[in-house]
Write a structure and sequence with these properties.
The protein has 3 helices and no strands. By secondary structure, it is mostly helical. The radius of gyration is 17 Å and the shape is elongated.
Length: 104
C-alpha cells in the first residue's frame, strides 16, 4: 500500500464522518463540522491527485478550497451565534417553528 492509497483511505474516512454529521444534523455545530470535514476530504483528494500526476493543479485546488471553506465558515458562525442568542440553542429542533406554522 503506497502513500496515495493511504491518503485516499483517509479521505474516504473523512467523507464518511462528514456525511454522518451532516445527515444526523441534530446540532448546527455538528452540521457545520460535517461540512468542514467534507471540504477537508476534497482537499486531500486534490492533493493526492496532484501528487500522483505530478501536477500543481491539486495544490491550487486545495488553496481554493481552503479559501472557500474560510469564506463560508465566517458568516455561518456569525449566523449560528445569532440563532443561539435569539432562540437559546443551536439544535435543529429549536428552529422548527420558523417553517411558518407547519408541524413536522
Amino acid at each position: 500500500m503506497n502513500l496515495a492509497d493511504i491518503a485516499l483511505v483517509i479521505a474516504f474516512a473523512l467523507v464518511l464522518a462528514g456525511l454522518t454529521l451532516v445527515l444526523l444534523r441534530r446540532s448546527l455545530i455538528f452540521f457545520l463540522l460535517g461540512v468542514e470535514l467534507l471540504f477537508s476530504a476534497a482537499m486531500v483528494i486534490a492533493l493526492v491527485g496532484g501528487a500522483v500526476w505530478q501536477r500543481v493543479d491539486g495544490q491550487i485546488l486545495a488553496l481554493f478550497l481552503m479559501a472557500m471553506s474560510g469564506a463560508a465558515l465566517a458568516p455561518t458562525l456569525a449566523l449560528l451565534l445569532r440563532v443561539r442568542k435569539a432562540f437559546g440553542g443551536s439544535s435543529v429542533d429549536t428552529l422548527r417553528h420558523l417553517r411558518g406554522g407547519r408541524d413536522g
